[in-house]
Amino acid sequence: MGWRPVTASTETVAIHAALLPTGQAGQIMCMGDWVGHRPVSTAFTYWQIYDIDQDDIVINADLSTDLEAEGLTAPDTNAFCCGQAWLADGRWLCAGGTVGFSQEGHHAAAEHYDGERACWIFQPQEGTWVSTTDLNFQPGGTDTGGGRWYPTLVTLGDGQIWATAGHPNADDTYQLRHNNNTPERYLPGSATWVLMNNDITAPHEENTDSYPRYRLMPDGWLFCDTLGNEGTKRFFDPIGSVWGGPDVDTSALPGYYNRGSAGTSVLLPLQPPNYQPRVLAANSPTDRFFRIDPAADNPTWTTTAPRQGPAAGENRENGCAVLLPTGEVLLVGGWPRDTDDTLSTSTRFPELYRSGIDWSTGLYSGSDSWGTLDDPDDEATIPRGYHFTAVLMPNGSVFTAGSTASGEFNAELGIEIYDPSYVGQARPTLSSAPHVINYNRSYSVQVSGTISRVALMRCGSMTHGFDSDQRYVGVTFEQNGNTVEFTSPPHGNIAPPGPYMLWVIDDNGRPCEQAAFVRLAPLDCEIGLERNTFSLLEVEAMLSEPDDGLAVFHEAIFFHFDGFRAAELGVPGSEPTVELFVGASPGSAPEGMSMRLSSTNFESGTPHPDRAQRFTFRYDMRFANLDAFGF
Question: Distance between CA atoms of 180 and 234, rounded to whole angstroms?
């Protein structure tokens, strides 16, 4: 199908982008801006919302916006070049950003911006920004150092957020370092950051270590495809904060990928039953890119099949790699970034990578290959280089925005969307999907057509050509007519908690017309009793002086629903469906015995639309007669 322009302009350079599970068909956060377009030293974060269904910008927050009059909020620090990741409840965490250019001290010679310590959370359902706990000061410090400019954030399997790298603040003096190489973890329950002082993630003298590429493996370790702390170790334990695992053979991987955000990489589809991980590294100016199987006994980087089409061999520096619901990888944008620093030589044609996965076994047992995208409509009309973003939308198309080059006016504000070949074809449909799912549980959806695959794809969160959380997780399923019953992933290391798109793919390899947003999270329901027995004599006595004709035991039973958002339980305005029965389910209800909701309690005090919490529903047990005691 090819590229199509969007009439609306972002007005803000979309250096950061995230797919939000809001609106009729999804929305996209565009955030950031750039020194050549607006003052980077301003303590304010520019942001906009693009609505996919309306095909337009529906929210714009900049320095000219009367935020209070329009009911908007914005960070009062500059989150430009922060790190970003999804929290388990579907909120979007942004950590660090830009304070200003180093003017003095040992950091001035490095000519990099100073890292911000402030952290912010965007709440998609409410559409608001709230501050959270700042990043830590430098190790051993109580009021100096720390902060991150160009950091990497990764969501872990238990919902914690791991952060590392980026240039620290100007007052950071720890080991005279030029990169914040001390990892820290964000604990959502307490909204605190824990500094981890065991191993460092890069040498102290390394300049910034900008956006190193880490991602979560199915065993809970992080795999790094940049240089890390040098040597042969590329696996990092995010809890123990140490390097470990097998040595990684990087002899085939060019030094191009050692540091910085010029290269990119993507975790290829994880498919049951074994969820074998494979990573693709892309963007280098060669006729081949590179891949590795991190779970192999001796992980070794090797070359992919030769690239094909008009973009073969072109330097895609700063390009973006986007997983498609077909399981293929679409590479868009990029440039050689020549000495003139202009976009005239950017790569306009996309590339399509096929990994060689055997979908029936989940193993990468076939040969990889490249599709040829050389139709005139495949050539982008807007060049993209540094500072652009690309995000998969729930209709299967790919949103692109942003890009900068040197000079005051070289800030790209246009939006262009790429429609893969399946757009416009007859595609299956998906309906009646659940809004929230737990791990290792069965759920049903309604579909059309014959379905060959079901997959969860994590909502995109892209900056500087890299999305550390990008994930395609296949699930097992059975189809009976128009009903598909699927089993959710077994645990969070395979699919970290947070927002996903649920896709079904038919037997011709075509994804559904519109994916469904689902939130994957560890959920729990507990039943408690304030009374574990109900006496015949007591009920008989109460019926002699009845409460509305009933014997009522107030708040005798309660239900805890843990890890849910309010709307996922229909709160306020609804309550769980409760069925009483005697013996094995479904059983028969005891005559004259019933329950009525007495009160609803919220762990946080209010049913906030974005924050997952514990809800407690307390029920009165009621007897209309003594029939319940006659079984």
Answer: 18
